[in-house]
Design a protein that fits this description.
CATH architecture of the largest domain in chain A: Sandwich
Number of strands of chain A: 23
Number of helices of chain B: 45
Subcellular location (chain A): Cell membrane; Membrane, Coated pit
Strand order of the largest sheet of chain A: 11-13-9-8-23-21-16-19-18
Helix content of chain A: 10-25%
InterPro entries (chain A): Adaptor_comp_med_subunit, AP2_Mu_C_sf, AP2_Mu_N, AP_mu_sigma_su, Clathrin_mu, Clathrin_mu_CS, Longin-like_dom_sf, MHD
Largest interface: A-B, 17 and 18 residues
Organism (chain A): Anaeramoeba flamelloides
Distance between the termini of chain A: 52 Å
Distance between the termini of chain B: 80 Å
Keywords (chain A): Cell membrane, Coated pit, Endocytosis, Membrane, Protein transport, Transport
Number of domains of chain A: 3
Largest sheet of chain A: 9 strands, mixed
Strand content of chain A: 35-45%
Radius of gyration of chain B: 38 Å
Largest sheet of chain B: 6 strands, antiparallel
Family (chain A): Belongs to the adaptor complexes medium subunit family.
CATH topology of the largest domain in chain A: Immunoglobulin-like
Helix content of chain B: 55-70%
CATH class of the largest domain in chain A: Mainly Beta
Strand content of chain B: 5-15%
Number of strands of chain B: 16
Oligomer: heterodimer
């Protein structure tokens, strides 16, 4: 029950205001100005003032504010605000700003009227909205009565995210599984933190209204299948090792009722690219690298560093663009570095030795040794920040997640080409303490 | 000079549009500099300069620099000016005074100072001034001084050296010794360069402020200089500022003169007044604003000087007129300064008629928008207020209070309250005014102010009725928190005085209090609760209603209120006797320091500028601090006189009251001084002979109520009376200082004589003196009413200590008192004889060895001692020899056993003939320090035992309870005294740590008496509540007397 939506810039100038319910008056704008904009620190995206709650998101130089008087589900409001931004991006392109809102104010009002009714979110699919709310320059030629009818059906239909009547000559499905690693390893090699954040991104180019089914090596699912009898699966084929997924969130197209009953993921995909699911795994995670750091402070002005990196994944695979950042004391003057592979040099900007290896083969051991010369000065104790690694390993998942099957059922389609890619990524989030 | 690398670096930094990019750029640069410093051992001067400059820039934009100090220090050694300059800059910025690198640079700075190169010298001086660590100051001060004084150094360097020395001096004032520096400074003042003179005077101002007398020699020189500028006007054109010759120098000269008294020599005195005259009369307004400002600055400073010197009526009058004229000027700054100057003037000057005429103009100052002016106007009104204009000024101030800004309100309320109190024409006016003030002042009224009202009303019985009436009226209106507080307190305490009037019957009082109770804060609610209980106690008919009300409060959410109401409820319902005791009429408050004046003094200390004057002076002169106590004192006096007629107190009391009234008749015109001193001495003597014990005045006043069983209340009045006697006595002594000085000298001579003869006992005497000093030190704390009093007492103390030494009676008494707790010491001493004793006690038996020392060269003939037989001692004395040759000592041993308890010690009579005395016989009687406590043994008791016995003994005459003002409340000191009196201090018996509990056992030949005591110390008024419980009346009273004598504040 959002009582109103407000677009306001940093200076407190109101761009758009739309009130949906009569329980608030226009004076709430002033309240927002005083309590949020004028406040010195605005760290919370939510502010409660005398019975009125403001939930806001900042985009560039302006805020989108949802105002409510009721005790509303805040997550819903923020999800909705995010969706609004997505819709606007769909209409105005990635870079929309205050000016775009000003020049297209009538369109914005139109959209706001359509996506909320009496405070309740309605159609939020850009594709559908675009059918009947169009920018002036995109105006279609006269619509036939038929197509107008179709719009209303789609807008009110069950599957709001997919247009009907799509046709592709070549039906293809692309499935990307991307895992982000967040590891922290102690200098003795013990895991302090091992979180894998994964997403399943799907790009569909399918005709008609296809029904898709996705099978993963989810432990619960597999156990259920086996009926609890065969606890041990045949591990011969990779991908059948069951894994424990901590939590999963799905795109709205996934039928949750079905997932709840038999853990099967079935859906009618939207056209184009979308994030089908995201998940988190913390148990039984395979680590792709082992790092052995040796740092010795020799006297007050020299530090010896020797870092060995061992890749633990199969030798058929390789890591791309591996960068190892080895921090040095703040008063480092120069570094004498020796290494067999890759390039290494001292970067004073970030105070690290940056060692980059283009291609890191599996089951390989590389090492770097350096003598760091310090300059005398008023030294404080070096805090010894951790070594961090960047890498991208194709065809490798740290969690062990595999796609067991992807079925597409649609009458009109005879043949579907399916592509599955795996990717394991770390952007400085794989850290090893020294 | 230009460094391209630095310029590029700065440009890069400027280009960064976010903090992160800037940080990256800085890190990169620092990394580069680090590697440069590391790699190239032999770096060119230019490079080094460049990198240090970059580091400096980085440091200045807020990054931490932890290297490069060595390079900076190396730059100092460079011969190139530009490199040296950067080096000094870096050193001054990067190093602080405690840095370890300081050691490295001291030497090179030293070399630069001696180099003779003007530029290097200047750089070095600047660095010294900016860093100025202790090490540096010690090592380099002499060099800087040399530079300043030497003939060879240029004026430019001298200027810097003077300022550098000033910086060093401010940090380490001990570096320059006046005796050494005064002459050098004199030489400096004859310099003809005005630039140097201005700098030197800045230095001198600081020096003179620290020790005006030490630099007095400079005065004539300064006056000469002033003459050169003001009268001869021989100043080069380049030192004129808008046609005013060296205004800054002039101001400094005038200011430095304010630290000294007016010059002694006539010529310079005349010169000075000529100069001042010329400045005062020569002031003309011109078109140029800057010219006017400069002129006025000089003018104000010279007026300040005139006020300080106070030697020319004419000049004072002119300056007053000028200032008053300035009051109507448009420029705010001028009005501000003239108000400030007038405050100074009124604080010092006695003749205020001119200022008073312009009172209305000053009132206008209050209404100005500018806060500063408002404050200054308030200050001025505060200082110029006296009895003649207090009504008007206080009225105006209260009117102003309504509209005053919040930042000034606190001060305003405080000052108004002080004025109203100090210059009250009559009491009803005071009560009206202060209540109005409290009503209007709201939150700005601090608790002190209404406490003060309560204090004054309580101490002035005539005022009570009126106060209660006014307060009752006020409570009926809508009023402030503080007004309710003061109202409810006064109604609770003195509501009885208006209870008979129809409009203010007790139930009406009750209703109004309950009505207010609902709308105020807990702090005040508590006061109302107490007041209600007092009403309930006074008017039994209302008790039920009040009990019911208090009963409801027992569940109040505030714990303090809850506790109070529970206590009161129980008192009202169950323990009526406690109620009676707890809510007796308030005793009058002792005269403590006026808290308001204290506060204002604190405030002023905060903002005090280091000038030679402050408003406080004026207050001191007017005796303002005393006035309130005077007011109260008079009242007391009346009351005392009433008592005198009503009852027939003992002879002593009449004497004391006479003494007071005589002293208070007028505040000491000078002629009467001598007489009064005599009166005082006579009366003390009398009281000593009349009283059986050789107690002092104070003790006597305490004794009376105790012996007579006069109700508690009166005892209290008589104690406060005692303090007022003290106050007055101190007053007298102050005026008698000169007398004392003469006596002092005689005394000193005498002392010298003694010391020759009595090498043995010197040590003891010394400790004795120290003890007396200690006593008075504490005395000081308890009895000062005001700051003035504090100062007076300090003066008096010195004279008192001397006077006690020469007053044999007093000295004897002090010796006696100290011997009560110690086993040995000197009992008596004059120029003939010294009597010492050593004693030893075991249970009921004792031994005393008396030493008679002949201090003369001549022999004492016919030496006889006689101890008056007493029933309580079985005494055996050794015979004593008939003759004591010159400068020798004789002993006499006394054995005795205590048979029963006693109150007064035995006496010894000593007589002898001496040639010097001629026919007359030396004959004196002393009390021997054989007191009851000597037979008391320490008995450790456990808590349970103690409490068991404690509970057995109840009430007088076996038990004693009383309060007295103590000289000390430190537990250790009290413990020492008690153990001297044979009483064991028991730890951990009383749950309250501040209370002291002790026990002892009195042993006579066939008798044992257990003694228990407890002391509750009160930190606030330094009083001790003493409870003694024994099984014998005499033991109780003697012990009590002994303890009080030892611990009480002593008066001479």
């Amino acid at each position: 029950m959002i009582s109103g939506i407000l677009f306001i810039n940093e200076l407190g100038k109101v761009l758009i205001s739309r009130i949906y319910r009569q329980d608030i008056t226009i004076s709430f704008i002033d309240q927002f100005k005083i309590k949020v904009l004028a406040a010195k620190k605005t760290t919370n995206p939510i502010k409660h003032v005398e019975g009125t709650t403001f939930c806001f998101r900042r985009i560039g130089s302006f805020f989108i504010v949802a105002v409510t008087k009721k005790n509303i589900n805040a997550a819903l409001v923020f999800e909705f605000l995010n969706t609004i931004i997505e819709i606007f991006k769909g209409y105005f392109g990635e870079k929309f700003n205050e000016n775009t809102i000003r020049t297209n104010f009538s369109l914005v009002y139109e959209l706001l009227d359509e996506i909320i009714d009496f405070g309740y979110p309605q159609t939020t699919e850009t594709d559908i909205l675009k059918l009947y709310i169009t920018r002036e320059n995109q105006r279609q030629t006269k619509k036939s009565k038929e197509s107008v009818k179709q719009i209303s059906i789609k807008a009110t239909g069950v599957i709001g995210w997919r247009q009907e009547g799509l046709k592709y000559s070549r039906n293809e499905v692309f499935l990307d599984i991307v895992e982000n690693l967040h590891f922290l390893v102690s200098n003795s090699g013990k895991f302090l933190k091992s979180d894998v954040f994964g997403e399943i991104i799907m790009k569909s180019r399918l005709s008609g209204m296809p029904d898709c089914k996705l099978g993963l090596n989810d432990k619960v699912l597999l156990d259920k299948r086996s009926g609890g009898k065969r606890t041990k699966m045949k591990n011969t084929r990779g991908g059948n090792t069951p894994i424990v997924i901590d939590d999963v969130t799905f795109h709205q197209c996934v039928k949750l009722s079905k997932f709840d009953t038999d853990r099967s993921i079935s859906f009618v995909p939207p056209d184009g690219e979308f994030q089908c699911a995201s998940y988190r795994v913390t148990e039984n995670v395979k680590k792709p690298f082992k790092v052995i750091p040796i740092v010795k402070e020799r006297g007050a002005i020299t530090v010896d560093v020797k870092v060995t990196v061992i890749s633990l994944f199969s030798e058929n695979l390789f890591a791309k663009n591996t960068v190892v950042r080895i921090p040095t004391p703040p008063n480092t003057a120069e570094c004498v570095i020796t290494t067999q592979t890759g390039k290494a040099k001292y970067d004073p900007q970030i105070n690290c030795i940056v060692w980059s290896i283009k291609r890191f083969q599996g089951k390989e051991e590389l090492s770097l040794s350096a003598e760091v010369n310090l300059i005398r000065g008023k030294q404080s104790v070096w805090s010894r920040p951790p070594i961090s690694l960047d890498f991208t390993i194709p065809s490798y998942t740290s969690s062990g997640l595999r796609v067991r099957y992807l079925k597409v059922v649609e009458k009109s389609i005879t043949e579907v080409v399916k592509w599955v890619r795996y990717l394991c990524v770390s952007k400085g989030t794989f850290q090893v303490r020294i | 000079m230009s460094i391209t690398g630095l310029r590029n670096y700065i440009r890069d930094i400027r280009k960064c549009n976010s903090k992160q990019t800037e940080q990256l750029r800085v890190n990169k640069e620092l990394g580069k500099i680090r590697s440069k410093f590391k790699k190239s051992k032999k770096m060119s001067g230019y490079d080094r300069k460049k990198y240090v400059a970059k580091l400096l820039y980085t440091y200045m934009i807020g990054y931490d620099i932890d290297f490069g100090h060595i390079e900076a220090v190396e730059l100092l050694h460079s011969k190139k000016y530009s490199e040296k300059q950067i080096g000094y800059l870096a050193v001054a910025l990067l190093l602080n005074e405690n840095d370890e690198f300081i050691k490295l640079i001291i030497n090179s700075i030293h070399n630069d100072l001696l180099s003779g190169n003007e530029h290097s010298q200047c750089l070095a001086l600047t660095a010294i001034a900016n860093i100025g660590g202790k090490e540096m100051a010690e090592a380099l001060t002499s060099d800087v001084q040399k530079l300043l004084v030497s003939q060879s150094s240029s004026n430019f360097v001298k200027k810097k050296a003077a300022l550098c020395l000033l910086r060093l001096f401010r940090k380490y004032p001990d570096l320059l010794i006046p005796s050494e520096w005064a002459n050098r400074a004199e030489g400096l003042l004859s310099n003809y360069d005005y630039g140097v003179l201005t700098s030197v005077l800045s230095l001198l101002l600081a020096l003179v402020a620290q020790d005006p007398e030490g630099y007095k020699v400079l005065q004539s020189k300064v006056i000469q200089l002033l003459k050169r500028i003001v009268i001869e006007e021989s100043v080069q054109k380049e030192y004129h500022y808008h046609n005013v010759p060296v205004p800054w120098l002039q101001v400094k000269l005038l200011r430095i003169l304010q630290y000294w008294k007016s010059p002694k020599s006539k010529t310079s005195g005349n010169l000075l007044s000529n100069c001042l005259n010329k400045i005062l009369t020569g002031f003309r307004l011109t078109r140029s604003r800057n010219h006017n400002n400069a002129r006025r600055a000089i003018l104000f400073e010279s007026i300040n000087l005139i006020i300080h010197l106070k030697n020319s009526e004419r000049l004072l009058k002119i300056s007053t007129k000028t200032l008053l004229k300035f009051l109507s000027y448009k420029e705010t700054n001028i009005r501000y300064l003239s108000l400030e100057c007038l405050t100074h003037l009124t604080a010092v000057s006695d003749d205020l008629t001119l200022v008073k005429k312009h009172q209305d103009t000053i009132f206008k100052g209050l209404k100005e928008i500018d806060m500063g002016i408002q404050k200054r106007a308030l200050d001025l009104l505060y200082t110029m207020c006296d009895h003649s204009n207090s009504t008007v000024i206080v009225g105006e101030l209260i009117k102003f209070l309504v509209v005053a800004n919040y930042s000034i309100r606190d001060e305003l309320v405080l000052k108004t309250a002080i004025l109203a109190e100090s210059f009250a024409t009559d009491f009803s006016w005071y009560v009206d005014t202060i209540l109005r003030l409290i009503r209007l002042g709201g939150d700005s009224v601090s608790d002190d102010i209404w406490h003060r009202v309560v204090r004054i009303v309580t101490n002035n019985p005539t005022l009570r009725h009126y106060a209660a009436k006014v307060v009752f009226r006020t409570l009926q209106t809508k009023c402030q928190e503080k007004a309710v507080a003061v109202g409810s307190y006064i109604l609770g305490e003195f509501g009885g005085t208006i209870a008979r009037e129809r409009d203010s019957t007790p139930d009406k009082q009750l209703n109004i209090l309950i009505e207010k109770y609902k709308i105020i804060k807990p702090k005040t609610q508590i006061i109302i609760l107490s007041s209600l209980t007092k009403i309930a106690k006074r008017h039994g008919s209302l008790r039920e209603e009040i009990v019911e009300f208090i009963d409801k409060q027992r569940t109040h959410i505030n714990t303090e209120i809850q506790q109070r109401s529970c206590e009161y409820y129980l008192m009202l319902t169950k323990y009526g006797d406690i109620l009676e005791e707890a809510f007796e009429d308030m005793p009058e408050f002792p005269q403590l320091e006026n808290s308001l004046l204290k506060r204002i003094k604190e405030q002023e200390e905060d903002t005090m500028d280091p000038r030679a004057w402050s408003i406080e002076q004026k207050m001191r002169e007017k005796g303002l601090g005393d006035s309130s106590s005077k007011m109260v004192g008079k009242e007391e006096n009346n009351e005392e006189n009433n008592e005198q007629t009503n009852e027939q107190p003992k002879e002593q009391q009449v004497k004391t009251t006479e003494l007071i009234s005589m002293n208070q008749e007028d505040l000491i015109p000078k002629q009467n001084d001598q007489k009064k001193i005599k009166v005082k001495e006579v009366s003390t003597m009398e009281s000593q002979t009349i009283g059986e014990n050789s107690m002092n005045l104070m003790d006597n006043t305490h004794n009376i109520p105790n012996n007579q069983n006069i109700p508690n209340n009166q005892q209290q009045t008589s104690t406060s009376n005692g303090t007022s006697i003290l106050d007055e006595l101190t007053g007298i002594n102050l005026n008698n200082n000169q007398n004392n000085q003469q006596q002092q000298q005689e005394q000193q001579q005498q002392e010298q004589n003694y010391s020759k003869s009595n090498n043995n006992n010197q040590g003891q005497q010394k400790t004795n003196e120290e003890e007396i000093m200690g006593l008075f030190g504490n005395n000081n704390n308890t009895n000062n009413n005001t700051n003035t009093r504090q100062n007076k007492i300090k003066n008096v103390l010195n004279s008192l200590i001397l006077s006690t030494q020469e007053d044999p009676e007093q000295k004897l008494k002090n010796n006696f008192d100290s011997l009560c707790t110690n086993s040995g010491g000197v009992l008596y001493q004059d120029k003939y004889i010294q009597i010492g004793l050593k004693s030893q006690y075991h249970q009921s038996e004792g031994q005393v060895m008396l030493f008679y020392g002949n201090c003369q060269n001549l022999t004492f003939e016919n030496f006889k001692t006689h101890i008056t037989p007493v029933p309580y001692l079985k005494l055996r004395t050794d015979p004593v020899v008939d003759q004591i040759p010159g400068n020798t000592q004789q002993k006499q041993l006394l054995h005795f056993q205590c048979l029963q308890e006693f109150s007064s010690p035995p006496k010894i009579n000593i007589s002898f003939n001496c040639e010097e005395l001629g026919q007359e016989k030396w004959n004196k009687t002393f009390q021997l320090p054989i007191v009851l406590s000597k037979f008391v043994q320490r008995v450790p008791l456990r808590a349970q035992e103690f409490m068991g016995r404690w509970k057995q003994i109840m009430g007088p005459p076996l038990g004693y309870q009383g309060t007295f003002v103590a000289r000390t409340i430190s537990a250790t000191e009290i413990g020492q005294v008690l153990s001297g009196l044979g009483i064991q201090v028991l730890n951990g018996v009383d749950p309250n740590k501040n209370n002291i509990v002790g026990s002892g056992l009195f042993l006579a030949a066939k008798k044992k008496v257990g003694c228990l005591l407890r002391m509750e110390t009160n930190l606030n008024n330094k009083s001790i509540k003493l409870t003694i419980k024994t099984t014998n009346t005499t033991v109780t009273s003697s012990l009590k007397n002994l303890i009080q004598t030892q611990l009480e504040v002593r008066i001479i």
